[in-house]
């Protein structure tokens, strides 16, 4: 018979063994479940390119094509609700319903004045009790729902509102929809961060698939010994073993495919870390899907054959060469050293990287992380081989590890790779985050919210302050009206006139104390403020100023409104207000200067909210909102100490989504692996109980059997992850700010393993029953 025919026959025999009897089906089902979990994650990862392209296409389909000749007046009216952004666009076709300009994607027609069309998620929120305050803000009549083609994701909050109150100076659109754009190129550090995220999130998946196809190794070896007894040679038994693994892998592909289709529908109904999608967008890339379908079964066969290289299968049993010849370290260091060889030349030069450099960096990172799984079995064998003595539970655990440390090391190899990669990723993310994040200079301890309004005169500004201050949950309101004043006699045509104008701020004493160190203050006082940096125009007592200036600080031709700085005006030192701004110039109280005299003022309010009232901010937004039919000239901002770039926010969101999925995979796969190991030890556990061993002692011994490889694996992961993180930081020329970044990640990994161990205790107690002594 030809070699190909022998392979086909013996692989088929292995498949039949995998599906024979209850024990065979149980083992194959556990293998398929482990492989299937990994396949689900791989198919989701393969869907990312199509998902991102679909999001870009949808976003471009509703983009506004601006033009002065446009026939549709538009107004941007975004808002926010409990930290969730809400997009909004006001539409006013000049020809009404007869306009020739097609409506944005997702709309059948333009909403009329007082009407709005909302996304399904926004509609559900507006109709729910938790969206009551938002419904007060967006109170137009809902006349329709935005179609799927007009939304970025299923959970996006978006609306289109019709209006008839946009003026002639409003923005105009000639149409909606453009070609998808790629956006600006990312910084090299962010590119490296994205690369590391992809590797770190996918490496544990590959490790878990490789571990899953080796479930039930001890029973498999006994079956192979029986085959040798009836005349099979060594090559045949190995091909039969590969056939068993192939059956589990193929069934795992079916399980993974079914799980992917089911999860695909579910993902369309949820929002994770602010991101959502449509099921139709979750489509694996054809080349990547084919790669997954081919790689999983091929890997199963290769991993099985590689695992049997050190096993001598004889007719009367199985002899493992590992008990005679100890594992060698030299070749196990090869992946780590090769990874270092690829990455070290990239230090300080990655910012000029091309596609080839990215590929080399990815290969180097994969090799370094893979090295942890190769070194771990050697380390576990050496450490447990030196263990002696201790309580009974400890001796049972160490003896079991001494006899067979391979399965224990494999069980924690996935978490080891995940922790090593996450440590490096944590260090790199911290460095890139510091580069992409800037200090705002704001002080949220003094005030938490800023409200900016324009096109309000002084009287309207005072009304706005009173309206805000009356809202429940607003503890204090610091409102100010600011404008410009020029020295009397200044030439309106002077080029540097705006630079010679002085800032004039009108506010009450409580607000002025937030702007400068004014000391005693009463209504009617005036202060001349100088900032620490200097350079601003500060009038002197007795100076006559023209208040008839526009918002740029230039006097209006032919207009004049004179005001004299009081002789009692005191000089004070400015200090940053809660938003970080400093006001150098004239600080006046309302009795000294009527804010209505400032013709084009800027209106600002800094608010201190009640920390025990989560709805206070939303009430403030409602108070300054004019309604979607009119738009609003007021903006509400939350004060923060730091502000991150859009790119780093996108990477952070992707990292959180991916990490959540991988952690769930890690936990599920470890449970499957642990249950299979306990099932293989069923008879041994029953025998020990029958001889009088306490169940608690066996339970603690199982805990030790898990804890020892875990501690060693986390130690290797911390060392490799920290070194890789430092190397990645050097590649993008960032300083290493925290050498102890591994500890939070190690703690999460240890906690996950502790949780898996607790979950395995009930099955352990069940397997200790006397029924385990029965055999056929």
UniProtKB/TrEMBL annotation:
Transmembrane segments: 30-52, 188-213, 245-267, 287-308, 329-347, 359-380, 654-672, 710-732, 739-761
Main location: membrane
GO cellular component terms listed in the entry, alphabetical order: plasma membrane
Compartments, record wording: Cell membrane
Pfam families referenced in this protein's UniProt entry, alphabetically: FtsX
Residue ranges occupied by any ABC3 transporter permease C-terminal domain in the UniProt entry: 197-309, 659-769
Alphabetized UniProt keyword annotations: Cell membrane, Membrane, Transmembrane, Transmembrane helix
Keyword Transmembrane belongs to the record: yes
Membrane-topology descriptor: Multi-pass membrane protein
InterPro entries reported for this sequence: ABC3_permease_C, Membrane_comp_ABC_pdt
Protein name: ABC transporter permease
Species for this entry: Streptomyces hoynatensis
């Amino acid at each position: 018979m030809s070699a190909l025919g022998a392979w086909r026959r013996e692989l088929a025999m292995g498949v039949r063994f995998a599906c024979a009897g209850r024990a065979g089906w149980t083992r194959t089902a556990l293998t398929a479940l482990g492989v299937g979990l990994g396949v689900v994650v791989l198919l989701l990862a393969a869907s990312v390119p199509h998902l991102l392209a679909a999001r870009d296409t949808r976003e471009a389909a509703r983009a506004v094509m601006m033009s002065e000749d446009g026939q549709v007046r538009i107004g941007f009216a975004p808002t926010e609700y409990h930290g969730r952004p809400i997009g909004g666009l006001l539409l006013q076709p000049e020809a009404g319903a007869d306009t020739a300009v097609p409506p944005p994607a997702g709309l059948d027609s333009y909403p009329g004045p007082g009407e709005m069309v909302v996304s399904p998620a926004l509609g559900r929120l507006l109709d729910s009790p938790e969206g009551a305050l938002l419904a007060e803000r967006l109170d137009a009549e809902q006349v329709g729902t935005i179609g799927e083609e007009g939304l970025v994701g299923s959970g996006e909050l978006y609306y289109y509102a019709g209006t008839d109150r946009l003026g002639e100076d409003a923005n105009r659109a000639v149409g909606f929809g453009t070609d998808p754009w790629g956006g600006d190129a990312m910084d090299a550090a962010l590119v490296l961060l994205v690369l590391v995220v992809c590797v770190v999130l996918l490496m544990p998946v590959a490790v878990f698939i490789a571990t899953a196809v080796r479930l039930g190794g001890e029973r498999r070896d006994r079956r192979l010994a029986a085959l040798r007894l009836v005349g099979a040679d060594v090559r045949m038994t190995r091909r039969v073993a590969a056939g068993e693994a192939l059956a589990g892998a193929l069934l795992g592909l079916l399980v993974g495919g079914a799980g992917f289709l089911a999860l695909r529908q579910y993902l369309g109904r949820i929002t994770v870390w602010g991101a959502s999608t449509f099921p139709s967008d979750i489509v694996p890339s054809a080349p990547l899907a084919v790669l997954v379908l081919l790689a999983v079964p091929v890997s199963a066969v290769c991993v099985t054959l590689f695992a049997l290289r050190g096993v001598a299968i004889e007719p009367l049993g199985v002899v493992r060469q590992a008990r005679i010849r100890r594992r060698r370290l030299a070749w196990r260091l090869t992946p780590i050293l090769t990874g270092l060889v690829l990455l070290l030349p990239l230090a300080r030069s990655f910012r000029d990287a091309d596609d080839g450099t990215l590929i080399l960096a990815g290969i180097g990172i994969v090799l370094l992380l893979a090295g942890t799984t190769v070194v771990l079995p050697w380390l576990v064998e050496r450490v447990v081989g030196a263990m002696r003595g201790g309580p009974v539970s400890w001796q049972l655990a160490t003896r079991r590890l001494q006899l067979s440390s391979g399965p224990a090391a494999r069980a924690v190899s996935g978490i080891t790779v995940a922790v090593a990669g996450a440590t490096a990723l944590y260090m790199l993310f911290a460095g890139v985050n510091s580069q992409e994040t800037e200090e705002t200079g704001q002080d949220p301890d003094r005030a938490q919210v800023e409200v900016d309004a324009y096109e309000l005169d002084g009287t309207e500004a005072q009304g706005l302050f009173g309206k805000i201050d009356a809202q429940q949950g607003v503890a204090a309101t610091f409102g100010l009206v600011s404008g410009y004043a020029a020295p009397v006699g200044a030439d309106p045509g002077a080029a540097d006139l705006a630079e010679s104008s002085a800032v004039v701020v009108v506010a009450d004493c409580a607000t002025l104390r937030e702007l400068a160190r004014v000391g005693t203050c009463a209504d009617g006082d005036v202060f001349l403020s100088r900032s620490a940096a200097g350079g601003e125009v500060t009038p002197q007592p007795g100076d006559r100023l023209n208040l008839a200036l526009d918002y740029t600080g230039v006097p209006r031709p032919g207009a004049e409104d004179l005001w004299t700085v009081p002789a009692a005006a005191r000089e004070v030192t400015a200090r940053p207000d809660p938003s970080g701004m400093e006001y150098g110039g004239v600080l006046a109280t309302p009795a000294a200067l009527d804010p209505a005299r400032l013709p084009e003022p800027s209106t600002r309010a800094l608010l201190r909210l009640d920390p025990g009232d989560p709805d206070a901010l939303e009430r403030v937004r409602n108070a300054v909102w004019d309604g979607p039919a009119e738009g609003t000239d007021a903006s509400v901002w939350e004060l923060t100490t730091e502000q991150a770039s859009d790119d780093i926010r996108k990477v952070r969101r992707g990292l959180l989504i991916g990490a959540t999925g991988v952690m769930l995979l890690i936990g599920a796969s470890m449970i499957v692996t642990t249950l299979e190991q306990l099932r293989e030890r069923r008879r041994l556990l029953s025998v020990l109980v029958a001889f009088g061993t306490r169940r608690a002692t066996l339970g603690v011994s199982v805990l030790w059997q898990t804890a020892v490889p875990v501690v060693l694996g986390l130690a290797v992961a911390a060392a490799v992850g920290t070194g890789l993180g430092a190397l990645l930081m050097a590649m993008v020329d960032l300083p290493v700010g925290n050498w102890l970044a591994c500890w939070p990640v190690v703690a999460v990994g240890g906690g996950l393993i502790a949780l898996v161990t607790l979950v395995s205790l009930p099955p352990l107690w069940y397997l200790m029953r006397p029924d385990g002594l029965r055999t056929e």
